[in-house]
Amino acid sequence: MSSSATPVGPRDTFSLVPPYLRDDEADDLGWFSEYGPEQTRPFRALRVWATIAHLGRDGIAHLVQRTAQLARALADMIEASHDFDLLAPAVTSVVAFRHRPTALGPGTTEALNQAIPTAVQRRGRAFLTGTRLSGTAALRACVLHPDTTEADLTVLLDEIRTAAREITA
C-alpha cells in the first residue's frame, strides 16, 4: 500500500504509525515502531536533571536527611505508644511496624494488620502500605514528600487507630 492510498482494514484505520515508519515489505511481525509510541530513546532523566538543577547537591542532601529524620520521629512515636510495635530500626525513610490493640489476640492482630492499609487508604487522610516482615503482616510507612510534618505522622497513627476500630467493630 503506498502512502497516498486510502487506509484499508483495521490496522491501517487505527494505526498510530505514520507512513514514513511503515514497512509494508516487513514480515508478519512488522516494525518495532508498531508496538509502542516511542520512536527514539526518551529523555527519562529529565526529571532527575531538573531536580538536581533546581535543588543542587545540598538541597537533595537536605531532603534525604529530612525524610530520614521524620522516619526516626515516627519510629519514636511508635515506640512511645502502647498499641504499636516497631519491627525494624528506621534507618531510611521507611518505617515497618504493627498495630497491636491490647484487646486482640495474635490471630486477630495478624488479620487486622493485613486489613489496615486498605482501610486507611479508603479513609483518604493518610497513606501507607502493607508488607510482610519475618513472615508476619506489617504496616509500611514511607516518608518522601518534602512537605510532610510531624503533625502528619500523628495523623497517620490516628488514622490507623480509627481504621482498626472500624475493622474490628
Briefly characterize the structure.
By secondary structure, the protein is of the alpha+beta class. Helices cover 46% and strands 12% of the residues. The chain has helices at residues 9-14, 46-80, 106-123, 150-168; strands at residues 84-86, 94-99, 129-133, 136-142.
Folded structure, characterized:
The longest helix has 35 residues, at 46-80. Helix content is 46%, strand content 12%. A 4-stranded antiparallel β-sheet has the order 1-2-4-3. The chain has 4 helices and 4 strands; from the N terminus they run ααββαββα. It starts with 8 loop residues before the first helix and ends with a helix. It is an alpha+beta fold and 169 residues long. It is elongated and about 70 Å long.
Write the layout of secondary structure elements.
Elements: H1 9-14, H2 46-80, E1 84-86, E2 94-99, H3 106-123, E3 129-133, E4 136-142, H4 150-168
Antiparallel strand pairs: 1-2, 2-4, 3-4
Helix pairs in contact: 2-4, 3-4
Q: Structural class of the secondary elements?
A: alpha+beta
What is the string of SSEs from the N terminus onward? HHEEHEEH
SS summary, helix count: 4
The biggest sheet, with number of strands, parallel, antiparallel or mixed sense and barrel status, is: 4 strands, antiparallel
Give keywords.
single chain, 169 residues, alpha+beta, four-stranded antiparallel beta sheet, 4 helices, 4 strands, 46% helix, 12% strand
